Each structure stands twice: as structure tokens, then as C-alpha cells.
């Protein structure tokens, strides 16, 4: 066989460079979309956690007002801490004597908080007496908010959710 009759098949250097350039362009376009997807998921987790904690706080308040549980201190019928929502409270109604009530299984963590912090410390706490625009901690937990400094995809600061 003659060497000249053999044809080598393959890609040229120019073809490989064009393919790599197209792949790089597509990857560059996909990165912002991937980052937005991650941000959207973290915001969804934040909304869910805020709803869960606020629902538990409202349940605690309602249970105190209806005499289902006894509040350990005087003042507004709100828990003294987020940890109190996970603790067992004895049901004071005669028909349910001895039953225990918990308002949260565990305190969810703020998905935007530093990973090393315990879940209870990832939230900003607002007392009943503090103003909504300037939340301050106090003797009870009336509301929670994210301590994150960023802004959500909807343009509202995460701390105002």
C-alpha cells in the first residue's frame, strides 16, 4: 500500500478552537442563570423558614391566650426565645391533662446566615414593644427577620421580608 493513498481523518486545530470558543460562550451565558437559580432557591427557603417560625409564634400566642399553656412570665403572650418554641409545654385543659405541646420540631436556620452559627442565632429578633422599622430584641419574641444584608430578586432587602 502506498502511504499517499491513506487519508487521515480528524479535526483541524481551527475546528477545535471554534468548538472550544462556542462551548466557552455557552458556559459564560449559563453561569448567571445558575447563580440566579441558587439565589431563588435560598430565597424560597428563607420564605418557608420565616413562615414556619411566624406560624409557631402565632400558635404559641393563641395557646397562651386560650389557657392551653401557662406562660412562665408576665407580659405579652409571646415566647421568651425561639428555643422555647421547641420545648414541651404541658396542656392545661382538663380534657388534655398531661399531654405535651410543641410549636416547632426544631428552629429552622436562615439560609443566608453564616454556616457555623446555631440556628437560633441566625435570626434577628423583634420584641412586641419595638417598632417594625427599627426592630429591637426584648423580653419576648414577637417576630423574626433575616440578618442578611443582601437584596432579594424582587428588589426588597432580605431583612425586610
TrEMBL record:
<feature type="transmembrane region" description="Helical">
    <location>
        <begin position="12"/>
        <end position="34"/>
    </location>
</feature>
<keyword id="KW-0812">Transmembrane</keyword>
<keyword id="KW-0472">Membrane</keyword>
<dbReference type="Pfam" id="PF07963">
    <property type="entry name" value="N_methyl"/>
</dbReference>
<protein>
    <submittedName>
        <fullName>Prepilin-type N-terminal cleavage/methylation domain-containing protein</fullName>
    </submittedName>
</protein>
<keyword id="KW-1133">Transmembrane helix</keyword>
<dbReference type="InterPro" id="IPR045584">
    <property type="entry name" value="Pilin-like"/>
</dbReference>
<dbReference type="InterPro" id="IPR012902">
    <property type="entry name" value="N_methyl_site"/>
</dbReference>
Amino acid at each position: 500500500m502506498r502511504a499517499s493513498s491513506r487519508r487521515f481523518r480528524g479535526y483541524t486545530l481551527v475546528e477545535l478552537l471554534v468548538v472550544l470558543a462556542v462551548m466557552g460562550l455557552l458556559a459564560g451565558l449559563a453561569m448567571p442563570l445558575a447563580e440566579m437559580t441558587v439565589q431563588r432557591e435560598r430565597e424560597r427557603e428563607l420564605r418557608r423558614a420565616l413562615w414556619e417560625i411566624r406560624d409557631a409564634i402565632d400558635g404559641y400566642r393563641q395557646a397562651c391566650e386560650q389557657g392551653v399553656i401557662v406562660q412562665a412570665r408576665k407580659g405579652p403572650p409571646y415566647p421568651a426565645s425561639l428555643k422555647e418554641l421547641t420545648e414541651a409545654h404541658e396542656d392545661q385543659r382538663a380534657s388534655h391533662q398531661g399531654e405535651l405541646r410543641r410549636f416547632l420540631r426544631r428552629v429552622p436556620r436562615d439560609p443566608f446566615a453564616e454556616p457555623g452559627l446555631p440556628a437560633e442565632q441566625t435570626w434577628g429578633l423583634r420584641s412586641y414593644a419595638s417598632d417594625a422599622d427599627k426592630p429591637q430584641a426584648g423580653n419576648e419574641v414577637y417576630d423574626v427577620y433575616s440578618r442578611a444584608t443582601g437584596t432579594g430578586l424582587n428588589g426588597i432587602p432580605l431583612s425586610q421580608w
